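Take a protein:
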Amino acid sequence: MKKKNYREDKWKYIKKNWQLYVIFLFPAVVLTFIFKYIPMGGILIAFKDYNAFKGIWGSDWVGLKYFERFISSPDFVSYLMNTLKLSLYGLLWGFPVPILLALILNRIRQEGIKRKIQLLIYLPNFISVIVLCGMVKIFLSPVGPINSVFGTSADFMSMPEAFRTIYIASGIWQGAGWGSILYTASLANASQELTEAAIVDGANIFQQIWHVDLPAIKSVIVIQFILQAGNIMSIGFEKAYALQTDMNIPASEILATYVYKMGLLNGDYGFSTAVGLFNSVINVILLVFVNKVVSKLNEGQGI
């Protein structure tokens, strides 16, 4: 009854002060509409023989021609699998790392040491992708420090079999610390009484983490997993393109780099838009599917 009255009072307050909500929401709604929804009209290019002089509406309609061309191309499976492998392996190896970092940081009681460690693990996030790729190429070059330590002269950047490891490992190093902030904040709200009770009952550190810390961040983990799993196909082309060489293309050519090359470099705008739209549709399907699966496994809790 109290909950119902609270909702009624809240709705009355909103109706009474609707001008305030309009003032604050109107700029955000306008900007979102201009920069998010209006550009969606550009997906029509995927169904037209786009000509810059004729414009989108004046170009000839070709229907699903570009989709059929892409799906029937001999490289379709290769590019799709390269994208999926990078994303799935990145999710498999990268998703648990921020959680582990947050759990470790939560166990450090000396604030001075904790802040210094946080600074060190957050710092890589502020390195730009291009600078990061340049560092990776220097470290892994035949005359770089990695080869100097092991006394070898291997050119790791030319090995297709090493590309995924390099891509995923560098991504974990750059983003894991920053990704742990959300979990660290959630752990700060965990019940200290439960932790003290677990210690009194004789629970060791692993039992405390399993029964106290993890339940405190369970909902955050679920939401983050759904969002990351739903973005499996959304790999940006910048890092893959910057780490790409003529020798590792069999493993580094993904849908994003393919769209960039076909659209901006070759000027095949209709075809590249069709490939990008295909990528986005797969993303939406995966997001809905993962959300439903996780909701069933997590007592109906999802996005």
